[in-house]
Amino acid sequence: MQVSRAGGERRSNCPVACSLDVLGDRWTLLVIRDLLQGKSRYGEFLASAEGIPTNILADRLKRLEEAGLISSSQYGTHSRRKAYTLTKKGEGLAPALRALRDWGLSQFPGTHVPV
Amino acid sequence: MQVSRAGGERRSNCPVACSLDVLGDRWTLLVIRDLLQGKSRYGEFLASAEGIPTNILADRLKRLEEAGLISSSQYGTHSRRKAYTLTKKGEGLAPALRALRDWGLSQFPGTHVPV
Prior knowledge:
Oligomer: homodimer
Largest interface: A-B, 47 and 47 residues
CATH superfamily of chain A: Winged helix-like DNA-binding domain superfamily/Winged helix DNA-binding domain
Radius of gyration of chain A: 15 Å
Order of helices and strands of chain A: HHHHHEEHH
């Protein structure tokens, strides 16, 4: 799986399959969601309601950066902490997130968009 | 994971998170893709270019039926073989699939929509 996620060997030339090689798990699109909502820091992602485990978060941030969907920069003068932002490629996922959100809103009673 | 996929405990009330509890892996949306393209039989899903393993396919069909996204019926008079179709709920994923397809087409050179 790491090979295809890193942009190597493909399962097929289907654009959905290639997308899922990068995005196809329970967590990655939640990090993209958080970034689209303006979150940028490790602690902010951790604080989201789903309680993403730290090892999964670190892995997904690394994979997303390798795949060119996010970029990172240090913030603070004496800090090794990073701020993450979506690249154009990552921002391009907004329509897919909206479509999944709309489907979820219609199918799972009691769900709502975070305020 | 089985609990949330089966519609039980939620990670949050975010519609994207609830959607990913059902759809968040590398294979499930490929089965939905195949169904949207008119495939309906086990052997047709197996024949798709990605080469889904039989145990994963059987598991995903079971989960999708439990989640109400597909329904199955026997076909043939002396056969236990099943034909699968999308329910309204499953058909509602068409916009999300289109959005993922469009993102993939724009990001992965050489990908194309199956003919």
